[in-house]
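User: Some background: our group keeps a shared notebook of sequences we're curious about, and every so often someone picks one and asks for a predicted structure to add to the entry. Today it's my turn. The entry only has the sequence so far, pasted here. Could you supply the structure so I can complete it?
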Amino acid sequence: MTNSTAVPATLARRLWLYTNFDCNLACTYCLSSSPPRAARRAIPLEDFRRLIDEARGAGIEECFLTGGEPFLLPDIFDRLRYAAERLPTTVLTNGMLLAGARFERLRQLQPLPLTIQISLDGACADCHDAFRGRGS
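Assistant: Of course. Here's the predicted structure to add to the notebook entry:
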């Protein structure tokens, strides 16, 4: 005798998008083949917007953007605004580019449901740099 209980299929509630596949660091464990000399491969802005809209229409509740390094994209702030105006959005970054004009543009997005997640690989500079490169 078998006891089978049907489990209803549900759609995942999170959308993960690789915005681009180039990066300013050369991490030893990189899974997306995104070293600094990688050819620029990015989702075109119009395709990005379409994916966000489709996800929202399908009941997705939050969006995560990763790369490479998303802040290398010249239109990243347009992407962040578009996504965060529609879904709570988290962008994963190494944080190296968040200074000056980029930081000020990021501040302008402050009222939106946008989270910046900075990756750290160790509690001290030497531990972190062993994975991500000296001075990172």
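Suggested note for the entry: Helices lie at 45-57, 76-84, 100-107, 125-132. The first strand starts at residue 14 and ends at 18.
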